[in-house]
Write a structure and sequence with these properties.
This protein is of the alpha+beta class. The chain contains 15 helices and 19 strands. The structure holds flavin-adenine dinucleotide.
Length: about 425
């Protein structure tokens, strides 16, 4: 086996970083849920440790310029009119999500209707309450780094079911943001790569894959590899930039043109201490308005040596601020934090950011999504092998799609396909 990696590092979307004071901060994927059993298994095997994300206190929301402090965790600071409306809609979505086939979403009962509808259309036809509309917009930005019109209802429902439930997706304790790895998740890939030795070849961008009757030739920058099978582990948007001979079947080729990546600039803003905790806040701020950071969480290190807020520019806002300078984005991020947490937020000791849209070998995150009509037209090509080419990566996972856990499980699935193919 040979691993060809385009970058001069491993870990892909799980990039590690540091503040000036030496504290490790995750610039890419970071949180692990209790159900992420394969990732947790690797963490243990590789001698890494996890710790609980900070989650004491209550969250806040910003809606029409007004900051509201939640009275309890479940309502996120929604007003008495909006809270039951959001609950009602969440119930409808949970019922619909139950109907989705994870192994073949295009075969879901009512797939054609669910896929023809954008999530924005579904929201519009299910409520007229402005705060509820704003809530769902904020949720889609936070989960998909996209706008509600940019994904189909079927994709939303598939993702909810794949990741257990809406509640799991948005929760810290008991949810997808529950745990972190001491020192950062990139160490999982680094330690795996160390164990593999010179099997992992860095700086080898794959440009062309040629299949013959007997094998497959993989052309990369500075390397050419002949193998019996190949697993392509990049998201469809990147897989479509590789040349194939013979050309990919039409449905697979079209899929790579239909699954854009989300839009995110991730920021980490550090303070001498996590001052928001003293005010009874858990650091979760959800922005229901347009402009500025769309969501923040407490991302302080486990040793409590300083306070860190992680904040995300997401969806349309990420694309809008991508043209600004880092200094201008820093000002915007701080402005958001002052609005959320008060004047103490005005004087951070450090600011670091990562624009994932500008990364040649990622081109956006958190992952790829499917817009209206795409699951039913192109979905069958997402994971189906093409001759000797197998597809893996978080986007191709049935369970925990979009997450590190989904990436690992998709790798196991593709490896089993290859082993099956080699022995037949
Ligand atoms: C800001 C951010 C926050 C996130 N938060 C979380 C989180 O909290 N929890 C979670 O579980 N997940 C999170 N994710 C998602 C998680 O990082 C991904 O699901 C996971 O890393 C996907 O792994 P992958 O192997 O499928 O793809 P990738 O990590 O993208 O790996 C693909 C690899 O292929 C390489 N490559 C690209 N093109 C080529 C080429 N032509 N030739 C050779 N190599 C190539 C890339 O350099 C990369 O190393 C987040 C992602 C980001 C960016």
């Amino acid at each position: 086996m040979i691993v060809l990696e385009a970058r001069d590092r491993v870990a892909g979307r799980n990039l590690g970083g540091h503040l000036k004071n030496g504290v490790a901060v995750e610039m890419g994927g970071q949180w692990i849920a209790e159900g992420h059993t394969e990732v947790l298994g690797l963490v243990g095997e590789l001698g890494l440790e996890t710790f609980a994300s900070y989650d004491d206190g209550v969250p806040i929301t910003l809606f029409r310029g007004q900051v509201t402090r939640a009275t309890d965790l479940s309502q996120l600071g929604l007003t008495p009119t909006a809270a039951p409306e959001v609950d009602r809609m969440a119930g409808l979505l949970a019922e619909l999500a139950e109907t989705v086939s994870l192994s073949a979403p295009w075969l879901t009962e009512e797939a054609a209707t669910l896929d023809a509808t954008t999530f924005a259309e579904w929201v519009r036809s299910n409520t007229t309450e402005p705060e509820a509309v704003a809530y769902w917009q904020a949720l889609v930005r936070g989960v998909f780094a996209a706008e509600p019109a940019e994904l189909s209802l079927l994709h939303f429902l598939f993702y909810v079911k794949s990741n257990t439930s809406l509640e799991v997706l948005i929760s810290t304790t008991g949810g997808a943001q529950e745990q972190r790895v001491v020192g950062g998740t990139h160490q999982i890939s680094e330690r795996l790569a160390e164990g593999l030795g010179d099997v992992v070849r860095l700086g080898r961008r794959v440009t062309r894959i040629v299949q013959t009757d007997t094998g497959v030739h993989v052309h990369a920058d500075g390397a050419e590899v002949t193998a019996r099978r190949v697993i392509v582990t990049v998201p469809p948007a990147l897989a479509g930039r590789i040349d194939y001979e013979p050309a990919l079947p039409a449905q697979r080729d079209a899929l790579t043109q239909q699954m854009p990546m989300g839009s995110v600039i991730k920021t980490q803003i550090a303070y001498p201490k996590p001052f928001w905790r003293e005010a009874g806040l858990n650091g979760l701020a959800s922005n229901f308005d347009d402009g500025g950071l769309s969501v923040t969480l407490d991302n302080s290190p486990h040793d409590g040596s300083c306070g860190v807020i992680v904040g995300f520019f997401e969806g349309a806002e990420a694309r809008a601020v991508a043209d600004l300078t880092p200094e201008q984005r820093k000002d915007l991020a701080i402005e958001s934090l002052v609005t959320f947490f008060g004047p103490e937020a005005a004087d951070p000791i450090d600011y670091v950011e990562q624009d994932w849209m500008a990364e040649e070998f990622t081109r956006g995150c958190y992952g790829g999504r499917l817009g209206a009509g795409a699951w039913t037209s192109f979905g069958p090509a997402l994971a189906a092998p093409v001759g000797r080419i197998h597809w893996a990566g978080a986007e191709s996972a049935e369970v925990w799609n979009g997450y590190m856990e989904g990436a690992v499980r998709s790798g196991q699935r593709a490896a089993a396909e290859v082993l099956g193919g080699l022995s037949s």
